[in-house]
Amino acid sequence: MTTASGELLPYEGASGGSTKQKQGMLKGLLRSQAFFAWMLIAPAALYLMMIVAWPLVETIRLSFTNANIGGESYIGTANYEKLLSSRKFSQTVSRTFYWMFLSVSFKIIFGLIGATLLNAAIPGRAIFRMLVMPPWIVPIAIGCFGWLWLYNGHFGIISGMLQYVGILDGPFEFLAYKNSAFYSAVITDVWVGLPMVTIFMLAAMQGVPRDLYEAAYVDGASRWYRFRRITIPQILPVIITMSILSIIWTFNSFEIIWILTEGGPRSATTTLIIDTYKMAIANFKFGQGAARAVIVVSLLSVFSLVYLFALHQIKKRFGAV
Amino acid sequence: MATLQLKNIVKSFGPTTVLKDVNLAIEDKEFVVFVGPSGCGKTTLLRIVAGLEEATQGSILIDDEDVSYAHPIDRGISMVFQSYALYPHLTVYENIAFPLRVAKRPEAEIKERVNKAASILQLEERLQFKPGQLSGGQRQRVAIGRSIVRNPKVFLFDEPLSNLDAALRGDMRVELSKLHRSLDTTMIYVTHDQVEAMTMADRIVVLNGGVVEQCGTPMDLYLHPRNKFVAGFIGHPKMNFIPAIVSRVEAHMLHVQLKDGGTMSIAIETTGLMAGDNVDVGIRPEHVQLDESGPISMEVDVLERLGASSIAYGKVQSNTTFCASLPGLADIKENSTINLSVKPEDAYVFNSKGEAQKRLTVLELA
């Protein structure tokens, strides 16, 4: 401990302590930085406890019951056993991962291409940069309704265009067939998520010192070589971060699928999160829904841990993100 | 073997012209330093030589071949950047090997050349380190190593020592001079520091406002600056200028009345001067002596004792700032007035246009 003047004092609690000393300790505690810090975050911490911790505990509890609109009773791990043995559920899990893989891959690949183009010294670059933003600015629901129209067989521009160029013979409802509905949902999800990935990658690219490119240019490195050996390694921390964050966001993505297809047709676009919602909210099977929610949370926790680990590794290797 | 010629180089960025008709011929194996204040166009000129900028007009010839539009790699140049431009994600070995990898050289050759460069630059122990783990001086050497492995015809250095501390800068100056001797190639070096220019250059090119003010050996520039700018730029501490009026003109002797009131006789070529002309008398701080009957009366504001010398900063009576470099133990104090004199052959004279009057040679002085 130190006095106000910075002089070192023996630790007060070390001698066992009289009442006076204990009072001193209490005062010290009240004055300590840690206590002050706890006081500052206490309201937020309490709020989080209320809206996150309690519902989480409640969800876990519900997952061991057969709770529905009529009541609930404890059934042990029956919900989980049912889920793990269900072929439909395993299909939903693999569909979710496939959905996630496609969407994240496209976001990262197109984000990289988009950022590279926006970073290039092309005329009207500022206009292109502005054009990237709308999917991000427009509320997701409104954007999705726009896509609903685009995918419509009779009024939609996509079907119309494809008929015009002769690829389609007649109107095609993109959201009415299993495969086309799934890939349409992927396209919309990429459309919504791409701007953020692009902007982050663009920011990372702009942070690469110009000298590095000039030095490589003087050494005879081609554009592609410079991109491969300088840009990619330099923005790797951002690529990793954005990939993991996109995995989490895409896994969690609910409103896009719900607005476009509500998980259909015939479950073709039902991901884990949609399945959970349908079970718990639409079918009122709270217990089974809660079991699914617990699995979703567990998977998300794994992703988050991977993210935190990656962030730590990136900081260790590159110094900053 | 590499000569370099710059012919009528003009460079404009929009309406701003930063280089105005620069002409220069650099000999084989010469160490040429471009020096000048910030914004004088020296780095732009180097970048034009490197091929990183295109000249608006004019041509660049390396070994008499016009390379004005050639890619840097085809010009046979290599460049060391002010920031070193090391690839932070690559090891020292890979940084040095980079140009060879670009050129798709065989692995054995890469290894041999990288190791050779590393041994020249004493980097053998650091080859597996990342740039972030190196000191400023070591990073600098890696950047030089990356240039060396290519065996370029011309080395270009863009203010390579400006990010180092003073002591390291001194060491690196010596190392670069040694490197020039051992590699025996043409080097062009850009700096704003006249000490670097004086110590390393075979020839200095002084640039100001996009124009070559003077080009010559360091001592040539020191002894015979063409104008006030060069005289003020070359030499440390900077040359003092005292306004004066010509009182009498002889063949090799100019008598002037200083604005202070003192009079001076200066052994100099007097062509073009007449009694009554306004001139500036240039006096290098290291050329003054304490002299009670000296014509220059100086009020000392600040005194820096450097050991070997004492630098006095102050004003002369014409309210012109003045600096005097005196012996280390000189008996002077701050806030006192001292009198100084200069030998007639040590002073410089600049006419009203700022052009230097020709100084007398040793023979003429004799």
Automatic annotation (TrEMBL), chain A:
Protein's cellular compartments? Cell membrane
Q: Name one Pfam family in it.
A: BPD_transp_1
Entries under SUPFAM superfamilies matching the protein: MalF N-terminal region-like, MetI-like
Gene3D superfamilies associated with the record? MetI-like (1.10.3720.10)
For the region Disordered, give the residue spans.
1-20
A GO biological process held by the record: transmembrane transport
Q: Which GO terms describe its cellular component?
A: plasma membrane
The regions listed as transmembrane in this protein's record are: 35-57, 97-118, 130-151, 181-203, 235-260, 289-310
Organism superkingdom: Bacteria
Q: Which InterPro entries match?
A: MetI-like, MetI-like_sf
Which UniProt keyword terms apply here? Answer: Cell membrane, Membrane, Transmembrane, Transmembrane helix, Transport
The record gives the membrane topology as: Multi-pass membrane protein
Q: What residues does the ABC transmembrane type-1 domain cover? A: 93-307
Give the UniProt family note. Answer: Belongs to the binding-protein-dependent transport system permease family.
Q: Which PANTHER family match?
A: BLR7065 PROTEIN, SPERMIDINE_PUTRESCINE TRANSPORT SYSTEM PERMEASE PROTEIN
| UniProt protein name | Inner membrane ABC transporter permease protein YcjO
This protein's species is Pseudovibrio axinellae
The encoding gene: ycjO_2
TrEMBL record, chain B:
The entry's cellular-component GO terms read:
ATP-binding cassette (ABC) transporter complex, substrate-binding subunit-containing; maltose transport complex
Quote the InterPro entries the UniProt record gives.
AAA+_ATPase, ABC_transporter-like_ATP-bd, ABC_transporter-like_CS, ABC_transpr_MalK-like, ABC_transpr_MalK/UgpC-like, Mo/tungstate-bd_C_term_dom, NA-bd_OB-fold, OB_MalK-like
Q: Does the keyword Hydrolase apply?
A: yes
ABC transporter domain location, by residue? 4-234
CDD domains this protein is in? ABC_MalK_N
- Single Gene Ontology MF annotation: ABC-type maltose transporter activity
- Subcellular compartments: Cell inner membrane
| Keyword terms of this UniProt record | ATP-binding, Cell inner membrane, Cell membrane, Hydrolase, Membrane, Nucleotide-binding, Transport
Gene3D superfamilies tied to this protein: 2.40.50.100, Nucleic acid-binding proteins (2.40.50.140), P-loop containing nucleotide triphosphate hydrolases (3.40.50.300)
EC number of the protein: 3.6.3.19
* Family matches, as Pfam families: ABC_tran, OB_MalK
Q: Which family does it belong to?
A: Belongs to the ABC transporter superfamily.
Q: What is this protein called?
A: Maltose/maltodextrin import ATP-binding protein MalK
Give the organism, scientific name: Pseudovibrio axinellae
> What gene is it encoded by?
malK_4
